[in-house]
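Memo to structure team: turn this sequence into structure tokens by end of day. - J.P.
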Amino acid sequence: MKILIVEDDRNLSHAIKRCLASSHDSDQAFDGAEGYFLASKGVYDLIILDLMLPEMDGYTVLERLRENGVFTPVLILTAKGTLADKARGFRSGGDDYLVKPFHRDELLMRIEAILRRTMGLYETKDLVFKELVISRSRRTVEIAGKPLDLKGKQFDALEYLVSNQDRLISKTQLFDRVWGFLSETSSNVVAVYMSGIRKQLKPFGYDIYLKTIRGVGYLFTEKDAHDAEDTNPTPDADRD
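Reply from structure team:
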């Protein structure tokens, strides 16, 4: 799972990132404006949000995200612990609220509970599409029991698309999710990886489910592209 930490205390932010490192990938923002910019991309599974932030406070970040249709679950992590503070946090769109100082294990338990509730799965639960099985825990892909040679970013990209079956994922969104905002790699690499994934799927006939929507992004679906989105796929996965 991919988590965004929005916390201006750099020592605490780094400590949280280290705490999550064994099970989750995380990005950091150190003020509200940066946090809002990153969160608005919609590529995170969870946002850990402080309230007392420079540039833009956490309440405003949360309210603007919800107003603009970003419903990524948010765990508010703050020193503001009054009932009124908590009430405002939940009314603004927060999913949970943890007051500083906090115990590391409680933070992890709350994160797991939110992901379980909002995603309906653990990161270790297999993804299944017909005879295609993606094992998150082993990071393997099989079709009808036969393994595919998908590793690294290829695995991550396919896992993200299949987990968002029937949902159009833009090229930028896929790049931000898999390669990350701070990557020095060009987003043009996405088409190259999509072509490689399709070649692995083709011997099994599963390449037909990975569709490229011209100038928009990618779609993993068994529906016709025009049924899932009001546009048509290109026949060549390397053209956007």
